[in-house]
Amino acid sequence: MIWNGCRNLSFGFGFGVVALLSGGLGAEVTKTPEAILAFVDQHCADCHDDSMKEGDLDLYSLGFDLTDKESFKKWMRVFERVKAGEMPPGEKRRLGEEEKKDFLAHVGEPLRKLDAADVAKNGRVRGRRLTRVEYEHTLHDLLGIDIPLKTLLPEDGGLHGFETVASAQQLSHHQMARYLDVADLALDEAFRRALEGDEVFKKRFEPKELAHLGKGNNRSPELRDGRSLSWPITLQFFGKLESTVAPEDGWYRVTLHQVQAINPLNGVVWGTLRSGACVSNDPMLNMLGLVEATAKERDIVFEAWIEEGHMLELKPNDRSLKRPDTGAPGGNVSFKGRDLEKDGFNGIAHRGVTMERIYPVSDRAGVMRRIFGAESKGAMEKGGNGEEQLRKVVTKFARKAFRRPVGEAQVEPYVDLGLKVLDEGGSFPEALRASYRAVLCSPRFLTFVEPGSGELDDHAVATRLSYALWVSMPDEVLSRLADEGKLRDKKVLAEQVERMLADAKVKRFVHGFTDQWLKLKEIDFTNPDARLFPLFDPVLQESMVQETRAFVRSMVEEDLQVSHLVDSDFAFMNERLVRHYYGGESKAPERGAKKKSGGRQGKGKGKDKGKDNNKDEVSEKEPVVVEEKWMPEIEPGKGLQKVALRGDEKRGGLVAQGAILKVTADGTSTSPVVRGVFVNERILGAHLPPPPPGVAAIEPDIRGATSIRDQLEKHRSNMACATCHYTIDPPGLALESFDPVGVWRTGYGRDNKGAKIDPSGVTPDGEAFEDFMGWKRIYAARGKQLAQGFVQQFITYATGAPGRLSDRSAIDAVVAGSEEAGYGMRTLIRESILSEVFLRK
Length: 841
Fold this sequence. Notes:
Layout: H1 2-9, H2 34-43, H3 69-83, H4 97-122, H5 132-143, H6 173-196, E1 202-205, E2 222-224, E3 227-230, E4 240-241, E5 250-262, E6 269-276, E7 286-293, E8 298-306, E9 311-316, E10 347-350, E11 353-358, H7 364-371, H8 373-382, H9 386-402, H10 408-423, H11 428-441, H12 443-446, H13 458-469, H14 476-483, H15 490-501, H16 506-517, H17 538-557, E12 570-573, H18 575-582, H19 614-621, E13 641-644, H20 658-663, H21 672-684, H22 708-716, H23 719-734, E14 761-762, E15 768-769, H24 772-780, H25 783-799, H26 808-817, H27 825-834, H28 836-839
Antiparallel strand pairs: 1-11, 2-3, 3-10, 4-9, 5-8, 5-10, 5-11, 6-7, 6-9, 12-13, 14-15
Domain DUF1587: 128-191
Region (Disordered): 317-336, 583-624
Organism: Phragmitibacter flavus
């Protein structure tokens, strides 16, 4: 019975939006109204009659039967493009405001009425299931466990930029099988910990224990004067700490004791702490965190999941550092006869490592409370009424898992499975486990239980709210308020939004939302070309992601104006980011000599004996420092810091951050089209159709000999392309001032020596700008447009469906209600949740 329910659920996903309506409303309207035809005659006939059919659109033969799905879609697109100013295109675009308003009313009102009727009948959101990230967080909170689960499930598809969109989700038989497998793993872990206790492991490894153990090639750090020293040696797995092998899978607190920078650059030596098998047939390394070593000794603590058999690897990972040779042939490292510290190389020293097993979600007692409950644990130990206790505990568990009260009839199948185990001589825990497994397979657990249309009940509101802001099931406070029927009270709901945004769990929202909205989950999809960007390193990439997440979190916490998305007078940076953005890094240092060389500022290995090659080495091999009037002041060792930009117009705003600029590039070149689409859809709230079929992509000249603008001009000569490019190109061309790794540039190609960047343009509504800063000034003043764009993104993420035409009045009300607060991001989130778009199916 339960499995059939899961199986039948698969037919509810993956079919996209249902056909708008068939018959009924609007069926008698098939002839295009005269007012619309008059507009078409004057502004559209040249391109969209029966002879031209630009974009395969003939507005004369289309008719106005909006109950036909294809007709509705085409008129909706016409409405959108005229409203956005994209149509009529080019010089024909000059519409009077009254003329435009009149046309939009004649087309928009029938479309809106039909769309509203569909929403009233079918709801905005078709059946939605938990994403794999939501599933993992839910099982963690429900059972008190902490093992990774999401990577064991198939990846979620996406639509409109979000994995949460219901019409893109599927639940096939294969996926259902994977969910069952993962549920088994989660229950195994929970019952093992509850019955057997938590594993205890804590061990300190002294520097002498971290040296080479005599197995295979030596790639361990140097042991000198009671300290472990790691250097920027590029040999794979150099810096591995062989004795730090994790005894089993688990979360560990890793403490690096008395970490200190050796010959710090700008007060810091940057490194990475990673874990892995550190062998060639298993080369993957998992990032635990950044190591920011300074001249002052200090302990640095990390908490991370480490797999059984994996060891730690600690090394300086800043590619702008001069790299010493290995000092030995083959895959070995030797420090015999050399003193890299005196030679001036940069390194990281520490006085030992402590590894301790931790349980970040809950200890054993918390797991026991979640799966046994206080009453059942006592009954199990004393031999109480098994059937009565089983029913009580399973009912309580099902209520939490289903995120709403359950009746006796609903819970009976799950209880029966447990009773069958008891009847066959199984233990009470075995009976519970059988019941719980079925609960975790149920559609009531895997999906959002919401009505077909209309208002959400209090429990559906609690669920939607909790997954929007905490990416997991409601806590006891939300559940109690839902039981009491208070969550649809706008005052109570607003208080809960504020409570949840102030909780530490909001970190899940920041990560989940930015991963999808800003495509941060794609940060690893491309690797910058090492020949073009030799100084791009793991420290820099991780810093970029942290920068963007810190920026968004500050906007939420401080209710900062949404205009900060395009411009701000502050940023979050660390020393590595400052050097990347302001230091003009362009060339990687060469490998150091095996013998003493006088260090970073000492003598290099040159052709002429005795000749001081220091000047050549510094100018040709180290980062080129570009003169800047001002650079942010960073305190070494403090990680990301909020800095005032003090008139630096280049770096302010989300769109100028390295992570955004990297995920919108391909590692070798940039495309105004890719960046333009990103900014329009994710920031400005524009909806762009896919390119017409048969249009060739623009192939950038990675040598930088030709300007991308020249290639775009040829591309735009195709009228089918030009109409969209009026919208796409302006922000994309403005962002050409940044290279694929987010560094400011004035020309293409290596060292900006290619074709000159021309970041000028004209916005779709006719405002000209000369450069990126000019573009920012235009849009920073358009708070209402930015607020509408952000609300559309949040609504899509939080409800599982994009805003529709019939939602626009509610979205406009959200934006209007936020105007007094300067369209603050926290206010926009709160007002979105209080809106009918969020509170209705």
